[in-house]
Amino acid sequence: METIKGREIADEIRMRVKEQVEASGFNPNLAIIVVGDDKQNLLYVGLKDKAVSFIGGTTHHINLPGKTTREELLEQIHQLNLDPDIDGILLQLPLPEALQAYSDEFLAAIDVNKDVDGFNPINRGRLIYGEPRFVSCAALGCLEVIHRSRGSVKGQKAVLVGDSFDQILPLALLLTREGCQVTMIDEMPSKNPLPDAGIYVIEKGRPESVQAHQIANGALILDVGFYWHYDHSCGNVKPDALADLEGELLPVPGGLGPILIAKLMENLYSAAQGKGK
Amino acid sequence: METIKGREIADEIRMRVKEQVEASGFNPNLAIIVVGDDKQNLLYVGLKDKAVSFIGGTTHHINLPGKTTREELLEQIHQLNLDPDIDGILLQLPLPEALQAYSDEFLAAIDVNKDVDGFNPINRGRLIYGEPRFVSCAALGCLEVIHRSRGSVKGQKAVLVGDSFDQILPLALLLTREGCQVTMIDEMPSKNPLPDAGIYVIEKGRPESVQAHQIANGALILDVGFYWHYDHSCGNVKPDALADLEGELLPVPGGLGPILIAKLMENLYSAAQGKGK
Question: Does A237 lie in the same domain as A142?
Answer without folding.
Answer: yes
